[in-house]
Amino acid sequence: MSNLAYRRVLLKLSGEALMGDEDYGIDPKVLNRLAREVIEARDAGAEVALVIGGGNIFRGAGLAAGGMDRVTGDQMGMLATVINALAMQDALEKLGAKCRVMSAIKINDVCEDYIRRRAVRHLEKGRICIFAAGVGSPFFTTDSGAALRAIEVGADLLLKATKVDGVYDKDPKKHADAVKLDTLTYDEVIARNLQVMDTAAFALCRDASLSLRVFDMAQPGVLLKILRGEPIGTLVRA
Ligand code: UDP
């Protein structure tokens, strides 16, 4: 038996997390490091699912700002998440892990369709599942996809890796006196008007009483530390 505080988790990585120091696309070194972290967590006994954004390639809102039809832009964004998922699958498999990409939009020549029962079975068998294409509809984000899938597969915790090491009482980039908050309830996040994730994703997590931990993935070994129960970043709980 593992000595972990969580049995099954879903880790949300933004597409930008794959870029490293580049301003577009995927840095193989960064991808490899993230894959190692995920495998370390899985080898310690956790069942790990991943959702990866697409912002390193396309975001529908950005494309729409440039004049493109928003739905088409969002579809391109969803395809970008599939590209990132395939890249991560490759990195995980090169390191010897078993992995399945499951997409919310049908693209089953390149990966499996998302089917909840099958996803749960993969996780039970120790395979790392990467849920691609968000919720499969435009006007959503991969934060919503991460929240939805975490709830569907019965994850104990949703992990949101960000560039900031937790939730602050105000934007730490703009205010030098911003204070990091260690634990919050969903109601406190609303009352204090804090930005944790987008509104749809936030509502899903709150209504399902799914705990969320916001943290910075830059520090090596951080994922396993969190799974062992270390209070890194900010915990948002029901
Ligand atoms: N997207 C979408 N529906 C979803 C998830 C994503 O339309 O359920 C599109 C949307 O255009 C979004 C893009 O895919 O901007 C990439 O996802 P996201 O912005 O969440 O990526 P991240 O910011 O995490 O890299």
TrEMBL record:
Belongs to the UMP kinase family. Catalyzes the reversible phosphorylation of UMP to UDP. The keyword Transcription does not apply. One of its GO terms (molecular function) is ATP binding. UMP binds at residues 54, 74, 135-142. GO terms for cellular component: cytosol. It catalyses: UMP + ATP = UDP + ADP. Keywords: ATP-binding, Cytoplasm, Kinase, Nucleotide-binding, Pyrimidine biosynthesis, Transferase. This is Uridylate kinase. Residues 8-216 form the Aspartate/glutamate/uridylate kinase domain.
